[in-house]
Amino acid sequence: MKDSTPEYHFEKEEKSFELKQFISNYLRYWPWFLASLIVCLVCSYLYIRYTPKVYTSMAKIKMLDAQDGAALPDLNMLIGQSKVNLANEIEIIKSYLILEKVVVDLKLTSVFYEEGRVQTSEIDTLPFFYEQIKFYERNQGGSSFEVEVTNEGFEVYNVASETTTLFTDYDTYKIAHELPFQLRAENEQLLEAAKGKQFKIHIKSIKAAVLDIKNSLIIGSIGKRSELLYLSKSGQSAARSERILNGVIRIFNEDGMRDRQLMSERTLDFIEDRFIFLAQELDSIEVGKRDFKQDNNLIYLEADSQISLGNKTQTDEEVFRLENQLALSGLLESALSDKGSKRGLLPANIGLDNTSVNTLIVQYNTAILERDKFISSGGLNNPMVQQLESTINGLRSNLDSSLDSYKAQLQLSIQQLSSRNARFSSEVRQLPEKEKLLRAINRQQQIKESLYLLLLQKREEAAISLAITEPSLKVVEYALSGSTPISPKTKNLYIMAFVLGIGLPFGVLYLIFLLDTKLHGKADIVKIVPTIPVVGEIPHIKDGKNTVFSTPNDRSVLAESFRIFSSNVKFLLPPKEEGKGAVIFTTSSIKGEGKTFISLNLSLALSSLNKKVLLIGADLRNPQLHTYLKTDKDKAGLSNYLHDPEFHWKDSLINGFAEHPGHQVLISGQIPPNPPHLLTNGRFETLLEEARLEYDYIVVDTAPTISVTDTLLISSLAD
Fold it and tell me: Distances from the Cα of 56 to the Cαs of 90, 223, 362, in angstroms?
């Protein structure tokens, strides 16, 4: 456990160091991050600045049930559920019939735009009078026009025909034209503000306008148990969206009220038809009664006849009531059998005392209204229409049966009362036959008068119901638009721009680092092979700067790094024999890695310590040492010595640096055809042994180890 503790701390420190190095690798490129962030933020600003703003408008309504005021609480009300089918109401609101009325009423077939310097924005109305005089059919396409307000008048450009027409005095009524609209300036102040501006007018068919609203209109329920609906629409012009939403609410409310008025109107029509018939019958009875009294000199009834006729009168009253009911049943049966009523409404609440018949009439009228609504929104083939037709036929059949049963019951009761009346007739035998006829006339007159008064009362009730028809909805909140646009979303775009501005260079750098296989510093070597000692770190020197340690007293970063490097090299060297110098080989894996640069500067750094140093160019295949000495590449050197036994290496030494008197260079010489044979013929070893006796350090610039085997053949000669 004790041994593992230091190792654990060492690992934690190493990880911390790697994290710091990771962060520092990216912080070196902070200008990239800053530039990327600025570009992304500027692009976001320009996008937000020049993208048309889209606003959302919303309205709220509450659906009202037709029987809210009179109906008793039912199960739905007790459990808190709405009696209104909101799904059906939503489909009716979005139906083509309703939206077509909105388009026509609000004149939405024309859409207006104002052109800016960069963007074109939709507006609700033009700053001058506009009237569309030509409308397109359903299958016709739209047309576009551009209107420029100049000092001379309106310049109207037809996009389709590519023609321009000038209307002076800002009035198109004064000039004959074929444009589908008229323009006229009516407000001088608005006209002055509009001068120099351009407006676009796009005219489309009613069908296209309806479909545009249908696609952009969103309707939903506030909650599962709520009777509230919200209507939402998005667009560049908040005023236009609000106008459309308020128009949809108004038209839908008027349509619902119209449906509720149909029953009252049908009742009024039925009563008006019957008034003419009853008036004729009453007039005929009254004329007959007058003629009967004149012919029979009847003016007063005998007082004693009242007692005799008491029982008969009571029976007559009952017969009168039953005959009244029978007459009403006949009238209703006549209305039901009328061909025009087979698809219309029946009169309700006309005075029948049969609850079953009255209930069936209400159900029948309700089914008729629902069927008409679904026909208008879905057509005759709608499954709901077929189902309601079946329901209506069943109700009609039930109503016929109920009326027949009720009439049979009335006739049976009348027959029973007639038999009783026959018994009472014996009590009035002495009454003149004429009196009996007069009473019959009076009875018929009373029946017709009471029926006339009843229908008059029902007509007033229907007229009142028609006049005070309740609305089908309640406006909870008229259309309101938000102050902030829903698109483009400024905050989100800036956040995205910030993330992209940071993430883009980070991702690029991450890929560069991930694909980078080069060694950039000591940390890369230690990370891969921690057991190999790093002798020194030489900074990268840009091209064009001094790359040679030519002055012993140089205080540059390069000079100091080579001083440290030379000190570490001396530390690594094994103890040497007295009077002999050390041999140092410099090599690399491939060419171009700076091997000659290191060899030269290392030898100069050792020479600056007042040491005798010999630099040998042993790269016989691709020598580069002569470029630093500015000497001829083919000058005699090491290759000449190795090849010619008579050639002495000291004859080709070069003193390339005046401020380093103890520094001498033996370049590689002419490039031989067989470098390995020359390096292994024994003369190179003799050269090193002779140089050890005269120099403190011998630095050998060898060939790359991966490219050729030259260095490996002589590697045993290095200290």
Answer: 19, 20, 43
User: Which region among 102-111, 147-156, 277-286, 621-630 has the lowest average model confidence (pLDDT)?
Assistant: 277-286
Q: Examine the pLDDT at 654 and tell me if it is beyond 80.
A: yes
Extract the runs of DSSP E, i.e. beta strands, from 244-389. Answer: none
- With tokens 């309640």, the residue in question is 474
User: What letter represents residue 464's amino acid?
Assistant: I
d(CA 687, CA 414): 156
What's the rounded Cα separation, in Å, for the pair 614 and 697?
6
Terminal C-alpha separation, the chain: 42
Segment of 8-22, 457-471, 670-684 carrying the highest mean pLDDT: 670-684
Beta carbons of 123 and 114 less than 8 angstroms apart: yes
pLDDT exceeds cutoff 70 at 194: yes
Burial class (CB in 10 A: 0-12, 13-18, 19+), 286: middle
> Beta strands 473-481 and 582-586: pairing type?
unpaired
Kindly report the CA angle at 157 between 154 and 159, in degrees rounded to 5? 155
Structure tokens at 640: 């000449």
> Kind of pairing, strands 110-115 and 198-203?
antiparallel
| Cis peptide preceding 488, ω within 30 of 0 | yes
Q: What whole-number distance in Å separates Cα of residue 549 and Cα of residue 555?
A: 10
HEC profile of 185-200: CCCHHHHHHHCCCEEE
What is the C-alpha R_g of the chain? 57
Give the model's confidence band at 432: pLDDT under 50 very low, under 70 low, under 90 confident, else very high: low
Task: Count the helix, strand and coil residues of the chain and give each as a percent rounded to the nearest 5.
Answer: 55, 15, 30
Arithmetic mean of pLDDT over the chain: 82
Q: Are 222 and 104 in contact (CB under 8 A)?
A: no
Backbone angles phi, psi at 686, to 5 degrees: -65, -40
Lowest pLDDT segment from 5-14, 17-26, 434-443: 5-14
- Token output for 272: 């008006």
pLDDT at 424: 63
Q: CB of 106 within 8 A of CB of 206?
A: no
pLDDT tens, 656-699? 888 888 899 999 988 898 889 988 888 989 999 999 999 999 99
User: For residue 100, what are the contacts with CB-CB under 8 A and spacing of at least 6?
Assistant: 206, 210
What torsion do the CA atoms of 652, 657, 663, 668 make, to the nearest 10 degrees?
A: -40
Phi, psi of 164 (to 5 degrees): -120, 135
